[in-house]
Design a protein that fits this description.
alpha+beta, eight-stranded mixed beta sheet, 4 helices, flat
């Protein structure tokens, strides 16, 4: 072969080989399947963590993770990876794709079920229509056989035997058609109820499910120095999820203790279902921003039109890193329990969370994997349980209602901060009331409606447990009269005298806190005097006694009653004012 031809063939082979060889510089788009493995839920949002494993060739590749929520916060997206491919993450690009219809399989399942039921309903309607046609045909046969002969069609009348055969034929067929019609109508009624139920489920699901007209995709460009695996981790924040606290408090009267179950109530409206994810709950509120708000000058000027706008809030980088660390911290796998040879019955154990307390917030890590669809339905998870001694007492304000309300106070002996939230109160296993968990300020004289704030470990709390008829309360007016005073009858005195009767019908000694208002004068011409109890019997902050006066004029008794004991508390007071002065609030 000539040398020039050989050289040309070698050059061509080199070029073709270079073109067919794998490129180390051109990125190839690789669709990546990922799944949500961890979710950190905040009071107003969630941080989701997805994981995916890919096989990377040498050189650049573009990994495309689609199906991300449309409301994803762009600034929150973070990507990391680890594997044998020695990969370098070059950049991340977010894209938006539009959908023709919602891909949610639950909607498709209900829509297919509804279509099948509607086809069955149409078939029943058709069969009922056939029965009507058969009944009309029998009527025409009867009319034809029983019609009198005419001049145009003379003929013999049916014999008695033929009449009998006709009656039997009509009766048998009409009876059969009536039975078939009744059966079909019952089936139609039952089918209509099923259709209505499926339509209600479908409408409810559509109403609670966020629309998914678009979604996001993350394109991650990576460079690998060698072929190998890469475990990719994608984390991002999205609105539509939240959690709030709730409590069950059970008073065990025989042991005078309270069993408290602390729940987290979750809602998922992110557009993504959570299936078997590791869950953490955080008390942090990133929506409030990272620092204290800056005050603006207080300006007073003439009114002029102002154009209102909207302020978009985003998560700061430092806040998001803390959120992501919380989301990526997966719980350790629990060791499987070993079953014994003989299984004995025992009470079910409630799974509890573990807590990590930071400088400004706490994170509750739920041990059991969570599954929660994205339909805004609620799901309760147990954060912790607590049993603590209860200090029981009764409170009554008989001027408003003659009843004694039971309240219990205890101490948060757990390591968990308790957020303010609703409480379902039980006496044993009987539901008795709904109230709100409230903190009792240190040194407070009474368990009043404290600030709705987080109850920290070691702090006291109070629970309202509703009316207890075991304590009888009766308020009776003894006297109420008005008299003139002064030498010239220039003054007027109104005297109020009444008695409150408290009876302990329980088998245990109980404390009753009695509250009764006394008038508070806002004018020096109006003089209020409390005669009973006497001023010397009313205590103060430095010398507390059985009865104390609060700043708003309310008298408060703390009375300990033995089982079966009755106690009468007399109250007498006067209001004096000039006769020519109109006064309100005398009753």
């Amino acid at each position: 072969m000539p040398s020039r031809l050989l050289a040309s063939l070698l050059t061509l082979a080199f070029i073709v080989g270079a073109l067919l060889a794998p490129s180390h510089g051109t990125a190839a788009a690789v669709p990546v399947s990922s799944r949500i493995t961890a979710v950190a839920v905040y009071p107003d949002r969630a941080v989701l963590t997805r994981q995916a494993r890919v096989e990377l060739p040498p050189g650049e590749s573009e990994l495309v993770i689609d199906g991300l929520p449309a409301a994803l916060v762009d600034e929150s997206l973070q990507v990391s990876g680890r594997g044998t491919a020695a990969a370098t993450i070059l950049d991340v690009n977010l894209r938006r794709t539009f959908l023709e219809a919602s891909p949610d399989p639950r909607l498709r399942t209900l829509e297919e079920e509804l279509a099948g039921l509607q086809r069955e309903y149409a078939a029943l309607e058709a069969r009922l229509g056939q029965i009507d046609q058969q009944r009309a045909l029998l009527q025409r046969i009867e009319n034809a056989l029983t019609a009198p002969p005419s001049k145009d069609s003379p003929g013999a009348r049916p014999s008695l035997e033929e009449w009998q055969l006709l009656l039997v034929f009509q009766a048998e067929n009409l009876s059969r058609l009536a039975g078939d019609q009744q059966s079909l109508q019952q089936q139609r009624t039952a089918l209509a109820a099923k259709i209505a139920a499926v339509e209600a489920q479908l409408n409810d699901l559509k109403g609670r499910m966020p629309p998914r007209r678009s979604q996001r995709a993350a394109a991650v460009r990576v460079s690998a120095s060698r072929a190998g695996t890469l475990d990719l981790v994608i984390a991002y924040a999205t609105p539509g999820a939240s959690w709030s606290p709730a409590y069950d408090a059970r008073l065990r009267a025989e042991t005078r203790a309270i069993d408290v179950t602390y729940y987290g109530v979750l809602r998922n409206g992110t557009g993504e279902d959570w299936n078997g994810v590791a869950l953490t709950l955080s008390t942090a509120r990133p929506g409030l921003g990272g620092g204290a708000p800056a005050l603006s000058p207080w300006i007073v000027e003439p009114l002029r039109p102002v154009q209102m706008g909207y302020l978009a809030q985003s998560v700061s980088s430092g806040e998001f890193k803390a959120m992501r660390r919380s989301a990526n911290a997966l719980p350790e796998a629990a060791a499987p329990a070993t079953a014994g040879a003989t299984a004995a019955e025992s009470d079910a154990v409630v799974a509890e969370a573990s807590v990590e307390t930071g400088l400004s917030s706490a994170t509750f890590r739920i041990d059991a994997p969570l599954t929660l669809p994205s339909d805004r339905s609620t799901q309760k998870v147990v954060i912790t349980t607590l049993n603590c001694p209860a200090d029981l007492r009764y409170e009554t304000a008989p001027k408003l209602i003659e009843a004694a309300y039971l309240s219990a106070s205890g101490t948060n002996r757990s390591d968990f901060p308790w957020l303010a939230g609703p409480v379902n109160a039980f006496l044993g296993d009987t539901f008795i009331a709904t109230s709100t968990l409230r903190a009792v300020s240190p040194g407070a004289a009474s368990a009043g409606p404290g600030a709705l704030r987080a109850l920290m470990p070691g702090e006291s709390f109070a629970l309202s447990l509703g009316v207890d008829d075991g304590i009888a309360v009766k308020r009776r007016i003894v006297k109420r009269f008005t008299e003139d005073t002064g030498l010239t009858n220039s003054g007027r005195r109104i005297t109020h005298e009444y008695v409150v009767t408290l009876t302990n019908n329980k088998k245990t000694a109980e404390r009753i806190v009695l509250r009764e208002p006394t008038p508070v004068s806002r004018d020096e011409k109006i003089v209020v005097k409390v005669i009973t109890p006497a001023e010397r019997d009313i205590g103060s902050a430095t010398a507390p006694k059985e009865v104390m006066r609060e700043p708003d004029g309310i008298l408060v008794w703390r009375i300990d009653l033995k089982p079966g004991e009755k106690r009468e508390v007399p109250i007498k007071l006067t209001i004096e004012h000039p006769a020519d002065l109109n006064v309100t609030g005398l009753d």
